[in-house]
Amino acid sequence: MKQNIKAIALFLFTTSFLISCSSDDTAAIDENTFGEAQLYFDNGVNGDKLILGASYTNSNNERLTINRLNYIISNIIFIKSDGTEYVYPKNKSYFIVSEESGINTINLTDIPAGDYKQIKFGLGVDNQRYLEGETAQQEFWDYATSLDMVWTWSTGYRFINFEGTFTSDSNPESINFQVHQGSNSATDNYREIMLNLPTTARVRMGDKPSIHIIADANVILDGINKIKLSDNINQAGTSAAIMGGENLVKIAANTQAMFKVDHVHNGSGTEH
Amino acid sequence: MKNILFRLMAFSSALILLCACQDDDSYEDIPVNEKFDFKIPDRFPEIKQDINSNYPTKWGVALGRKLFYDSRLSKDNTISCSFCHEQQHAFTHHGHDLSHGINNLEGIRNAPSVQNLIFQTDYFYDGASNSMQMLSVVPIHNPVEMDETLPAIVAKLKQDPEYVKMFRAAFENGEVSSSNLLNALAQFMTIMISADSKYDKYVRNESGGNFSSQELKGLELFKMNCASCHATDIFTDNSFRNNGLPPNLNLNDLGRETVTGFIEDRYKFKVPSLRNVELTAPYMHDGRFGSLQSVLNFYSDGVQNTQNLDPLLQQHSKAGIPLTNEEKEALIAFLKTLTDYEYIKNPLFYYKT
Amino acid sequence: MKKLLILFLLLNQTVNAQFKNLLSDQSSLTDAYFLDDCDACGCSASGGSMGFNSMLSEKFIGVRYMYQKYQSRDGVFNNSPWIDENFNTVQLWGRIPVSSKMDVMVLAPYHFLNREKMTDSQSLSGLGDITLLTFYNLHQTQNDTATFHHKILVGGGIKVPTGVFNNKNNGSINPSFQLGTGSWDYNLATEYIVRANNFGLNTTLSYVFKTENHKNYKFGNQFNYGSTLFYTILVDQLQLVPQIGVAGETYQANQEFKEDVPYTKGDIFFGKLGIEAGYRKFSAGINVMLPINQNLTGGRVEADYRLAFNINYIL
């Protein structure tokens, strides 16, 4: 009897903890407060990490050595599950990601506290913004110039600067390639891209979620449209350049699939 | 005695302090800026650029003019905009088929006229820019023209107190910056309107607008043969066309295709405005024709069916525009009525360097 | 005497299985690849899946040393480099009977963790999470002469968040590099042992309920299973018990703020091998576990092997 009581008491003691546990209730969001967020662009090629100077072969059977990958990210919008959007102020919403300069992180401030399930951003500079020619845009112009993100012989931005060398069945000797995506006065190649966040990005005062995005450089030429560098070699045979025409329209379609959110870190101090 | 001395010292030191305070340069008055008053001609087509975001102001225009004539905009401080765009030749490079820029490097194009820009949608023969505020970047960056960058120019201008003062007066943020520089140039080019030629006086029924019978005939011929491309009172329809010029293999200029990349744009060049054409020889994108006579000879006998030749030049059995000698002379007489002598002498567009 | 020894051996196997469950807590914790918090191998390290081997007595106090090797991907790409992670645990443990049918078990781990990142190396040491368990003997074959002897046990327990976890140990490397989970976890188990002659087969199932910690992180609930075949050899006062078996663990997805975290579901299947020796009041054992099949955190973490040594003093 005594032993049974002891046993029961012990059992009860042990299981009482089951009841006592409780988790914190999620605090209500104070919409009058603001927090920060970070977008981290992790550049890759077809599932592998992008390493400048390393080679890979794409499905066009061309072997590329990438030496430069820079692109413009702009007009960032945070979207909640009910569809309400927070549009990051346009005059500070233009950024450049540059692998060679080690610029992969976009830090955003003064975002209204909330739970965000999607983000949207533009790849390049929207035509309206470019034609507005506002003061802030010119400062971005200087910044873009320093990172080789402007056309040289006409006015306008390069949305993507993708360069390196390559070999193919047509050119067994390695020659340069240059892919400069952008708009010109004939075509507007600016596109918006919407991404789902696998877990909610919780922006709070003192919290800074970090959204880890993977960018796949391979889809620029090897996406839903296949663009062969060997089809774009100049007459002298010294290099391949893709800087205008229908190819840019195709690239704009390809790059819709260039980005994907891998994960979201929540909390503070979660920077890479 | 001591008391008076003390008071005198106190008073004089106060006076000195007062004067010293007033001598501070940073509190110098910034001249008041105001909107620039200019007239939009009634008969012109609608304005194609957004001038409200950068509306010309008194000091903005003054600054833009000074910059237009300033060779510090080039890398070695020798080439200004006015070097290739000379006022007395309606802002073209007199006698030069192709212009030379920095280090005597030669380009592949003829300097186009700077006039009536706000009524146009695209600039340069290949449409390298469609924005008034941005277009100055093109010659500034071109390595055979000015070979310079905006930040470098800004650094030079910041050393010049005159510029510092003018930038402060012209723009709200008062900064010597690339954006303000481009905007000042754009404001200056905005007010450069040419609309007082004999032709204009004729259509407005003003004195000085009496056309001779030859000029009238020329006008009629122009409307029939030329106005489909050189349309409206600015004498261009803002389009890009291939007018059948045989390509110069030395220059290999692909025209609009250079900018857009579309093969359908190969050998197409911007239809230029014919205003002041009497003053802007030589003619065409590469300045190959020295006279209006040779231009018209080309249209009657020289047009080649090159890739993307404009359909408007394929309306007859032979490509081009059939014209008799008499017709050509009448056309030339008419074209001379497009010269605006006030435009080329207007002190508003001149700056003595 | 023989009967008693066998009984103890079986009981040891039971606890062995229990510990295996708790150690498997560790591997579930490694699945938290991208998380702020510890899902850590090292955290609970009640660590028994390597084998508990106090075969001689159900009453003991002992010390066990466990080593676990993991590799995790430093990056999100297919060619991101693998980092070695070494988890060393020294554990004080004891098993105390409170009645003829009931035992209480305590496990108190102390961890030494280290790993080599691309840029620097990291190490952590400290107290881990303490575990308390209760077992109840539900049924046992009473007839000694029967060919097959059966025993069924049921039990439950809790793991207390006494180990520290640090928010700073996160990033793209396996953030299960922690001393504790920060949460209270609960465990239910059942064990079935059947023996005949000198052979025995021990089969254990357990389920771990995990709760949300104060960083709003909850590890996925976990199901463990295992079966060990053992054989007893008696030579004078020395006993030897070689053993061989399999064990497996499956994890549900972890949750952060009640949302499923991607890449945190997983499963792993081990083969295990070990031997124990006992002499008078002391016993010692060694046990090794090798993964046969695994799919942890979408392939971004791999378990290598687990090794354990222990020395016990019989009460």
From TrEMBL, chain A:
<keyword id="KW-0732">Signal</keyword>
<feature type="domain" description="Copper-binding protein MbnP-like">
    <location>
        <begin position="36"/>
        <end position="232"/>
    </location>
</feature>
<dbReference type="Pfam" id="PF20243">
    <property type="entry name" value="MbnP"/>
</dbReference>
<protein>
    <recommendedName>
        <fullName>Copper-binding protein MbnP-like domain-containing protein</fullName>
    </recommendedName>
</protein>
<dbReference type="InterPro" id="IPR046863">
    <property type="entry name" value="MbnP-like_dom"/>
</dbReference>
<feature type="signal peptide">
    <location>
        <begin position="1"/>
        <end position="27"/>
    </location>
</feature>
TrEMBL record, chain B:
<keyword id="KW-0560">Oxidoreductase</keyword>
<feature type="binding site" description="covalent">
    <location>
        <position position="81"/>
    </location>
    <ligand>
        <name>heme c 1</name>
    </ligand>
</feature>
<dbReference type="GO" id="GO:0009055">
    <property type="term" value="F:electron transfer activity"/>
</dbReference>
<keyword id="KW-0574">Periplasm</keyword>
<keyword id="KW-0732">Signal</keyword>
<dbReference type="InterPro" id="IPR009056">
    <property type="entry name" value="Cyt_c-like_dom"/>
</dbReference>
<feature type="signal peptide">
    <location>
        <begin position="1"/>
        <end position="22"/>
    </location>
</feature>
<dbReference type="GO" id="GO:0004130">
    <property type="term" value="F:cytochrome-c peroxidase activity"/>
</dbReference>
<dbReference type="GO" id="GO:0042597">
    <property type="term" value="C:periplasmic space"/>
</dbReference>
<feature type="binding site" description="axial binding residue">
    <location>
        <position position="85"/>
    </location>
    <ligand>
        <name>heme c 1</name>
    </ligand>
</feature>
<dbReference type="InterPro" id="IPR026259">
    <property type="entry name" value="MauG/Cytc_peroxidase"/>
</dbReference>
<feature type="binding site" description="covalent">
    <location>
        <position position="229"/>
    </location>
    <ligand>
        <name>heme c 2</name>
    </ligand>
</feature>
<dbReference type="GO" id="GO:0020037">
    <property type="term" value="F:heme binding"/>
</dbReference>
<dbReference type="InterPro" id="IPR051395">
    <property type="entry name" value="Cytochrome_c_Peroxidase/MauG"/>
</dbReference>
<dbReference type="InterPro" id="IPR036909">
    <property type="entry name" value="Cyt_c-like_dom_sf"/>
</dbReference>
UniProtKB/TrEMBL annotation, chain C:
<keyword id="KW-0732">Signal</keyword>
<protein>
    <recommendedName>
        <fullName>Transporter</fullName>
    </recommendedName>
</protein>
<feature type="signal peptide">
    <location>
        <begin position="1"/>
        <end position="17"/>
    </location>
</feature>
